[in-house]
Design goal:
The protein is α+β, with helices and mostly antiparallel strands and 470 residues long. It is built from 15 helices and 19 strands. Helices cover 35% and strands 22% of the residues. Strand 1 (30-34) and strand 2 form a beta hairpin.
Length: 470
């Protein structure tokens, strides 16, 4: 009797699952389900969760000997790679590698296992008046290893820099076994900075098992102001002058009406400005923002301090990062941010995304042409980053899907022409191939290929789907 291809594949998966149970124990093998949509595929992949670095190394050796590819994941709250047709990688999860290994508050350095949730790091450090000064837009379940793999960042990157500035060392299991990069001291200049290669590598080079991170004292005074702009032109001139001043900004974001409403703010275009300076310096910055805003026709709609400011930033992060969505981040010249954000919101395909009054006026007049309630847009006025998160339901009509992809392609083409780039931060499993087909891949660049050849010559780990010039 003939057996079709799907039957052969299922038989192969069952045989491998049984071999895994024999090698690592019947209770050690779990199944990670990646949901699709009614018009797209789903996948159920076998998963192992090593409890220490030795077990992780055994899994890697087992996979290398059998030609099985590994897909490193944390809690799985972010990027899911575009697997080739028929690919059945083995998920190796770091979620069991959890907990603080070493922490001396006097040194402002913490050594943490990679599967530790960010919320746990925040809790432990907070007991000593310290924090990890990054606020990635991810679920509370997200782990440090997952954030390292995706190089996730949030609005306070403006004031504190990216995650790569705060990870000073790590341990990882590669195809050649465990390695250590960097160390536990800030002034570490020995050898090549391999740590940076793993940040943003999407698990394509190995499984991170442990990381040493720098901490900072908690901000003495957190202040946050919100202004609404009548149109994009005054906001652009306001943003340019704001960045030219010496006021200490910890964050500066522009958010669209749908995202503003999700944050509990009026449903309008709103600029959020934050500072973490000492009270006297913070008050001086706030007074300067207010004067500048009045000069450019912006209206203040609210001011928050302390826990109230933290709560609003938390609502902002949860709206963008905690909702199942298709989320992308474009990086560009800061002057392009307002025009690009408005372009995404309006959904007008084609054309360059410039900051001139003609393009901005045309886009502003088109805002009423379609509903944008299911699209969150934010722009970093100082970082040059624009995010768009589409809140996708269980079933997305084909026409709507094509429209979203066309909008993504148009903005990506425009910012690329000015040396911009795009990064996928979250994508539903069923959308991953369509999205890469729209954006193209940069994974085969000579530099990416050479790094992969050196650290993973046998291609044991699933290659990352770097896109858009990354």
């Amino acid at each position: 009797m003939a057996v079709d291809q799907s039957g052969k594949q299922a038989a192969t998966v069952d045989a491998r699952r049984e071999e895994l149970r024999t090698a690592f124990g019947r209770d050690a093998v779990m199944v990670r389900a990646f949901a699709g949509t009614p018009d797209g595929p789903s996948a159920d992949l076998d998963e192992l969760r090593p409890r220490d670095e030795r077990e992780a190394a055994e899994i890697v050796r087992w996979a290398a000997d059998r030609g099985v590819q590994l897909l490193p994941l944390g809690a799985g709250t972010q990027w899911i790679p575009s697997l080739q047709e028929g690919a059945e990688p083995l998920v190796v999860s770091a979620t069991a590698l959890s907990g603080v290994v070493e922490y001396d508050p006097g040194d402002l350095v913490m050594v943490v296992r990679s599967g530790t949730p960010l919320a746990e790091i925040e809790r432990v450090a907070g007991e000593h008046g310290q924090w990890l000064p990054v606020d990635p837009l991810v679920s509370e379940r997200a782990t440090l290893g997952g954030v390292i793999g995706t190089a996730a960042a949030g609005p306070h990157r403006l004031g504190y820099g990216p995650l790569r500035d705060w990870v000073i060392g790590l341990r990882a299991v590669t195809a050649d076994g465990p390695i250590r990069a960097g160390g536990k001291v800030v002034k570490n200049v020995a050898g090549y900075d391999v740590t940076k290669l793993f940040i943003g590598s999407q698990g394509s080079l190995g499984l991170v098992t442990e990381a040493a991170i720098k901490l900072r004292p908690l901000p003495p005074e957190r202040r946050l102001l919100a202004f609404k702009a009548p149109d994009v032109e005054p906001l652009q001139s306001f943003a340019r002058e704001l960045m030219d001043r010496s006021w200490s900004l910890s964050a500066a974001e522009w958010i669209n009406p749908a995202l503003a409403e999700a944050c509990g703010l009026p449903k309008e275009w709103i600029a959020l400005l934050g500072t973490d300076e000492l009270p006297k310096a913070a008050q001086g910055a706030v007074e300067g923002w207010r004067r500048l805003a009045r000069e450019h026709g912006l209206e203040e709609i609210g001011a928050w301090a302390g826990r109230d400011a933290d709560d609003l930033w938390s609502r902002y992060g949860n709206a963008l990062g905690g909702t199942p969505a298709l989320r992308l981040r474009w990086v560009m010249w800061p002057s392009q941010v307002p025009g690009t954000a408005l372009h995404l919101h309006a959904g007008r395909a084609g054309g360059k995304v410039k900051d001139g009054p003609g393009t901005a006026g045309e886009l502003a007049s088109s805002l009423r042409e379609e509903s944008t309630d299911r699209l969150f847009v934010s722009g970093g006025l100082g970082t040059g980053e624009v995010r768009a998160a589409w809140i996708l339901g269980d079933a997305v009509p084909e026409e709507a899907g094509h429209h979203i992809l066309a909008r993504i392609a148009a903005v990506t083409e425009a910012v690329r022409s000015d040396m911009g780039r795009v990064r996928v931060e979250r994508v539903p499993f069923a959308w991953r191939k369509s999205l890469l087909g729209t954006l193209g891949s940069a994974a085969e660049s000579p530099l990416s290929r050479r790094v992969k050849e050196v650290l993973d010559p046998g291609n044991v780990f699933v290659s990352a789907d770097f896109v858009g010039g990354v």
